[in-house]
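Crash report, auto-generated. Payload:
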Amino acid sequence: MPFDVVDQIENIFHPRSVAVIGVSDKSHRLGNILLHSIMDMGFKGDLYPVNPREEQVMGLRCYPSLGAIDGPVDSVIISVHPKGVPDLIEDCVAKGVKAAIIFSSGFREKGGEGMRAEAEIVHKARAGGVRIIGPNCMGLYSPSSGLSFFPGMPKEKGTVAFLSQSGSLTNLLGLFAGSRGIRFSKMISVGNAADLDVNDFLEYLGYDSETRLIVLYLEGVEDGRRFISLAKDISLKKPILLWKGGETEGGRKAAGSHTGSLSGSGEIWEAAIRQAGMVKVENLNELIGFITAFQNPYLPMGNRVAIMSGPGGPAVSAADACEKEGLRLARLSEETEKMLAEFVPEFGASISNPVDLSIASSFDQTMYPRATEVCGLDENVDLIVEYISALREGMIEGIIKAQERVRKPIAIVSSMEYATFESPFSQFFGSITREKLVALLMRMYDSGISIHATEQEAARALSSLLKYKKYLVSRHPL
Amino acid sequence: MPFDVVDQIENIFHPRSVAVIGVSDKSHRLGNILLHSIMDMGFKGDLYPVNPREEQVMGLRCYPSLGAIDGPVDSVIISVHPKGVPDLIEDCVAKGVKAAIIFSSGFREKGGEGMRAEAEIVHKARAGGVRIIGPNCMGLYSPSSGLSFFPGMPKEKGTVAFLSQSGSLTNLLGLFAGSRGIRFSKMISVGNAADLDVNDFLEYLGYDSETRLIVLYLEGVEDGRRFISLAKDISLKKPILLWKGGETEGGRKAAGSHTGSLSGSGEIWEAAIRQAGMVKVENLNELIGFITAFQNPYLPMGNRVAIMSGPGGPAVSAADACEKEGLRLARLSEETEKMLAEFVPEFGASISNPVDLSIASSFDQTMYPRATEVCGLDENVDLIVEYISALREGMIEGIIKAQERVRKPIAIVSSMEYATFESPFSQFFGSITREKLVALLMRMYDSGISIHATEQEAARALSSLLKYKKYLVSRHPL
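Recovered output after restart:
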């Protein structure tokens, strides 16, 4: 019964008590990092470190075994040698634990003996009413319930969920996207997904009211039919971004030793992605940009893009990038061009699309905002790309303000590295502190303005918004 | 006579005296920035600001006209209203000036009257023995001769030359690549290239002993046949990276209003690039990565790539990226795998290619260097890709040391933004000061280790090295 799984997972995300097995007060074991992370996130329930050789771990009373804990234990986090896991699952069953989150590796992804060991723990857990997350995973992150798997993950909750077959990607995305002002509702590292699998969590995220955008890193799924059927329906409510590893023979072999996944051919996946209205990304940088584009988007009415740029070469390159992605350069109205001519320099610039604001736009922070408003309100324009050498505070504030009237997707191409970089150029281009930048970025995402590292990524993001819009229309015909 | 042009350009890069027209002591005109830049670079010759309404500009005596300057004037920098340019060219002729570098815009790129004005100044200049750079350009940067067009450009000289039809790209590349430890021999912004054109400067750079790698941003060239013929021969001596703007109809239209270039179709350019052994890039980020790959490369012996990664997902994604670019995952020898097993964790990791070093590699800085050496010395490996979440000092030092024995192309995928970023993660991943990082990066490039933002860019760079190697072999058959 699907609803049972959804309810079970909801409960797993809200444990009243968590035991952590594989901790030590003397060494830096993974268990310590996990325990520290949960304490750091301010988990409100009971926390029980378990280790027969310790009295106390990180200031908490340590228990010799699960059975020795007085109260009930909802979740158990296991990061011990794989040989120790089957017995621990028996302990979980005996204790009436609801979920075992198994970080330990050395199971299906190793083949042979590991495969048999994985089947054994699943059998024991299912027979005893314990759900398993993992093994070979990083478990769960959920700021609203105080769960985490790595110290320093953002404490504020957001609306983006990340469901991943790569555990370390959850850390990386948490850190990298976090430093760009992206906040998450939940992260789930499923690892080998021996029991609760990608489909179970995807279904859950479809219902999760905290989540408005779902991001997947997948190498393969067991039940492809169910996956596509779930994705098709969930896409109607929230966009799904998919980074698919194992598209080539080499990648599939790598995926096999990584999470033991059966990947299926690239063509099958391409078809599934199209059919289910999912949005494809191909690396971490692009993913972060796409999250900013899909977090709170205005869905475009058409494919006509206005481009504005300070540097002239990138304006040309952005035009190329947009056309290659099936967008068309908007033909600005005469009135728009007239209004642009009021503040765009007569020489070394261009008021026709792509609008070349010239180097003057690096000194005058009002130029991008004015061009955003003028072009954005032109009824021939559906989408906007802005190439900005270095973001500055007044400029960003102005573009956010313009967007209040424009209300169309705006994709900015800019290097975050240089926005905050102090250099001899700063006297001309200015620079922003990282704290200030993050606050500004969050406001940008909220108002439907995204940030990308290259013009190609911006063009792909806008073109993906358009495809997603078309998917919605095709499923909800007028 | 081609050699005349090469000698003329060499002289233009070494002026004994420079006059700057379009400066003012009271306002921030472009001319002031240009004058300031040259002073800042430590130009050793004579500098003459020219403005009839000023006695003194930036502490230098200001002259009412070119004619009023006592000594000879080799180069004149012109940044005035376009209407004033023709008369100034006459002054240049009268003064016996060798080169006029015209920053002013409002010529061919504006069509009509601007086109006629451009023809007029070229006619006057040629008749009077003055060579023109521009108009609508940023001119020349050359640290060894103290020339620059923007303050804050690196003062140290390097071996990379940049020849560009976009002026602002020269600034951007100088700043962005500069902050990554890339140093330039020369930068040339040709603008409309009314007189001295892309081909002239390309030929010059082919001879220039300071330059070992040539980077082009082009929207179109006048004499395509000469361009290809030059590129074919120069490619044999130094690699040529080409960022080509105006590949699509929209891009070509944009290029027309940017520098008035006739672009030619994308297919013609693709053929030219292949035929001449040039290396194509498509945006600024990729360009910067490719410069690091081509600056001092070991040319690969084949297409067999070893991948190593801490995070498992990106290892799979890197394998996909490499195979899509025509590289093959190397099959590591049994001995290599045995040596890897000595330090790679038994669980949650992989000793077969792609080598998954696991999260342990974030804590133990010796793992990447050891894997680099072990895999690099395997005779089944031609190329190496390393996905590194956050670069750290000991890790980089170790990889550079390993490369002393390996001597094969190593492409690292890593975010510079996070190497220097202080976060709660820093306690685990560490961080480097920007100054230290730049020094390390320079040593990496010197030893044939490149840095890229994504696994796709790394794969394209390695695959481009291989294509370049094949071009060299095809032109120098055994």
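Post-recovery validation: Chain B touches chain A through 87 residues (CB under 8 Å).
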